[in-house]
Amino acid sequence: MRIDNVLSGLFWQAARHHPQHRHASRASAPEDQRKNVANLNGSLSPNRRHVLAAGAGAAVAAFTAPAVAMAASSGTAHAASHSAHGERSADYATAKDGTRIYFKDWGSGKVVVLSHGWPLDADAWDAQMLFLVQKGYRVVAHDRRGSGRSGQSSSGNDVDTFADDLATVMNALDLKDAMLVGHSMGGGEVARYIGRHGTSRVSKAVLISAVVPLMMKTDSNPEGLPESAFDGIRNNLTGNRSVFYRNLAMAFYGFNRPNAKVEQGTIDEFWREGMAGSILGQYQTVKQFEVDYTEDLKKIDVPTLILHGDDDQLVPVDVAGKMSAKIIKNATLKIYPGAPHGMCTTESDKVNTDLLAFLQT
């Protein structure tokens, strides 16, 4: 099967029809949008849209990038401060190389830290932040460098630096006993943070539709994506990322499924966040889809919740969530029937309930 067009770097076509679809009772998606996705993926017909558990894992690991979102205030509870481990000014922390990392810091109480996916930014967590702050928690979410309101550096767009940037934010705010939550590429960031910085500031971890442990095809991971798949992503970023992001959103949220109700506002927001980010940073970050996080997962020594949809077309649960649950000590895996990759949005009520329950245990 060829994977040399737009979605080739992101999705594998399945050899069988998925038996159930999460949107079965909803109105049909507009046919023209379905055809757009089908054309991009060559032969992506309705009965071949279920991704092979083997390959999709690599493709979109990091779909959470930037947005020119409104400058949300961090509130009066946490005044601007300086720390021996990092510098904070208003809603920014300064990384080791001088890059300014934007963050939202809402509420007070036990801390939850959220790491977004590619190509989005912290605004992707709106549903979770609003819910948790109303439940009495302090919620922190940052824009990864090159995303949203953070600085657009020409270097450092790699997972080691992302993990160090997360440490910069946590140190600047002196966050302790925090629950780290990562979605998609953000899950890789959380894993690498623990791998590099340990769990002295961490009490729990949550991985949602995360790209860990490995998306790249290797001798030890024959079901992963070949390097040509990632080349396809890069080619589409340099070709027309505006069109690419609009079509990617269809699979990200499962809107390309039969009888799915397309939520145009959700697609527009995905596009807004993606287009607001640095194309250079996004391009360089694609290389991080090829990273092996196995050793990082082995270092996670805090209770960990893994949430994954069984209709994730970008990071299939069989090669991601299920594999991670076997590697991480003291991990609990919960699979959402019919849920897509972007389930923090499409299944926000369920995700919020599970996050709250895990916080309270």
SSE map:
Blueprint: H1 31-40, H2 56-59, E1 82-83, E2 86-89, E3 92-94, E4 100-106, E5 111-115, H3 126-134, E6 138-142, H4 159-172, E7 178-183, H5 185-197, E8 202-208, H6 227-252, H7 264-276, H8 279-285, H9 294-298, E9 304-309, H10 321-327, E10 331-336, H11 343-346, H12 348-360
Parallel strand pairs: 5-6, 5-7, 7-8, 8-9, 9-10
Antiparallel strand pairs: 1-2, 2-3, 3-4, 4-6
Notes on the protein architecture:
The chain has 361 residues and is an alpha/beta fold. It has one domain (1-68, 78-361): Rossmann fold (3-Layer(aba) Sandwich), CATH 3.40.50.1820. The protein contains twelve helices and ten strands. The chain has helices at 31-40, 56-59, 126-134, 159-172, 185-197, 227-252, 264-276, 279-285, 294-298, 321-327, 343-346, 348-360; strands at 82-83, 86-89, 92-94, 100-106, 111-115, 138-142, 178-183, 202-208, 304-309, 331-336. It has a ten-stranded mixed beta sheet, sandwiched between helices. The chain is globular. Mean pLDDT is 83; it is low at 1-85.
Order of strands across the main sheet: 1-2-3-4-6-5-7-8-9-10
Please outline the major beta sheet. Answer: 10 strands, mixed
Give the CATH topology.
Rossmann fold
SS-derived structural category: alpha/beta
Summarize model confidence as the mean pLDDT: 83
Enumerate the spans where pLDDT stays under 50 for 5 or more consecutive residues: 1-85
- Large-scale geometry: globular
Total strands: the figure is: 10
Helix and strand sequence? HHEEEEEHEHEHEHHHHEHEHH
The helix content is 25-40%
**Annotated CATH homologous superfamily:** Alpha/Beta hydrolase fold, catalytic domain
As a percent range, the share of strand residues is: 5-15%
How many helices?
12
Cα(first) to Cα(last) distance is: 46 Å
Count up the domains. 1
Radius of gyration, taken over Cα atoms and rounded to an integer in Å = 19 Å
